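User: I'm putting together notes for a lab meeting next week and I want to include a structural view of one of the chains we've been expressing. I don't have a solved structure, so I'd like a prediction I can at least talk through. The sequence is below, exactly as it appears in our construct file.
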Amino acid sequence: MILWRICRRSHRALDGEGARQFGGRWNSERVAVVYTSASLSLAALELLVHVEAVTLPDDLVALEIELPDGPEHFAYAEADRLPPDWRSYPAPEWEAELGDTWIADGEFLALGVPSAVIPMEFNILINPAHAAMRTVKILSERPFRFDERLL
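Assistant: Thanks for the context. Below is the predicted structure for the 151-residue chain, given as structure tokens.
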């Protein structure tokens, strides 16, 4: 499975450190998780909704990431099975609790969650502590800049 992540060049390690420090929709502070998207365009939109255009760093990179295939590595949270408030902003606390439980359980390398930005598409959370993490590869790293019309 190919996934995408856009981040600062200095944050390209797939260690979940940023999410551990600050928390996110699907994890609490102190819980490491790597946020990725199923497409590069979704990764771009996910970044844009979290930053001010004037504060976008000029050292962004797009990481093309390969995860091992197979149902033994993945779990999914389907949008139609989540409570109606799942797209709320700020995110409801139960979402971070769900992600924290998934990480603590340790059964799956990756958890597909619907994007609050585009619910028909998926973000993929990666558990950096999972044993299969050693098989995860960064296939490419390319400089990334947003088209100025988006800013």
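A couple of points you could mention at the meeting. The mean pLDDT is 95. Residues 28 and 88 are 16 Å apart (CA to CA).

User: Perfect, that's what I needed.
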